[in-house]
Amino acid sequence: MINTLRNKSLCLITFISLIFTGFGEEKGSEQVLQKIAFGACASQNRPQPIWDTIVAQNPDLFLFIGDNIYGDTEDMAVMRRKYAQLKAKPGYQKLLETCPVLATWDDHDYGKNDGGEEYKMKKESAEEFLNFFDVPQDSPRRKREGIYGSQIFGSEGKRVQVILLDTRYFRSTPLLKNKMSKQEKRKKNLVGWYSPLNDKSTTMLGQDQWTWLEKQLLKKADVRIIASSIQFVSHEKGMECWGNLPHERQKLFDLIGKTKANGVVFISGDVHFSEMSLDKSGPYPLYDFTSSGITNVSSKWSQAINNYRVGPAYAKLNFGLITIDWNANKISLETKSIKGKTTIQQDIDLDQLRVK
User: Fold this and answer.
1) Domains detected in the chain
2) Treating both helix axes as pointing N-terminal to C-terminal, what angle do 207-217 and 246-259 enclose, rounded to 10 degrees?
3) What would the pLDDT profile of 209-252 be if each residue is shown by its tens digit?
4) HEC secondary structure over the chain
């Protein structure tokens, strides 16, 4: 009981701090994070019992990283009603009472399936998003286009930087359609909607967000959680991913090396299953921890090719849990089932996540 009260008190302190710092990029919370839960792909039209399992983990922070609702509309009244359905979920209300929530979006809560810069209601949708997640009026996130943002938690030696990317608002369109036949895709084990686009004038983040991101990566942090709604490392399935714009994917690898940004771990959603991917071609081993399936899962998609995968895939309801052991200098990445069982686990020595 004492530990439970202590955790709730710490979460309340952090929540108050977030309010007064505007989810700030200039200031941050002094709370040392040990447990960070995250998830994606939550249809407001379906039951969401997994929130009780998430709350039972007593996370210090929850990250909602895309398809937080399935909005898919240009009518903002419809978008608001769908957000209201999420807010009415008893389990989600329990989460809000337990710990702070930070969020970014993916295509469905942006408003258009696989949408990018062409979505004509993007400004209005951004306002609805920021309002729903109670982002203060004086937040930097409200003073620019898009909804990207960052927050630093903890003190020297135990600093966690959370970077929330916006992979929708500025992304060039259209993507390059994959023209393989169904038989060819099946033979290559592809989902296969898209192929890499080698036009280097295209962008994932837009120039302003890239400039902002470089400044964030120059800040001091021991662990950096970069939330990208779509997968960063895995790029062979033919689904939406950073590999559809390979020059932008490489640009982020290069930027991490250029800024000597230690401690980066990517988290992603979108694909309706969970997997761990690892790319060793960057400045140090870069992990992309995908958790997708608060309500929506796909066993078929989980079987698609991913030569970067470490361990199994898990295609039942799931969320991600990141646990930092500051004393042992380690981080643990776990996929959790609806019953709280660990189905995928990757333990990493933080010294591995250092620019040589």
Assistant:
1) 2-352 (3.60.21.70)
2) 30
3) 999 999 999 999 999 999 999 999 999 999 999 999 999 999 99
4) CHHHHHHHHHHHHHHHHHHHHCCCCCCCECCCCCEEEEECCCCCCCCCCHHHHHHHCCCCEEEECCCCCCCCCCCHHHHHHHHHHHHCCHHHHHHHHHCCEEECCCHHHHCCCCCCCCCCCHHHHHHHHHHHCCCCCCCHHHCCCCCCEEEEECCCCCCEEEEECCCCCCCCCCCEECCCCHHHHHHHCCCCCEECCCCCCCCCCCHHHHHHHHHHHCCCCCEEEEECCCECCCCCCCCCEHHHCHHHHHHHHHHHHHHCCCCEEEEECCCCCEEEEEECCCCCCEEEEECCCCCCCCHHHHCCCCCCECCCCECCCEEEEEEEECCCCEEEEEEEECCCCEEEEEEEEHHHCCCC
Q: What is the pTM of this model?
A: 0.93
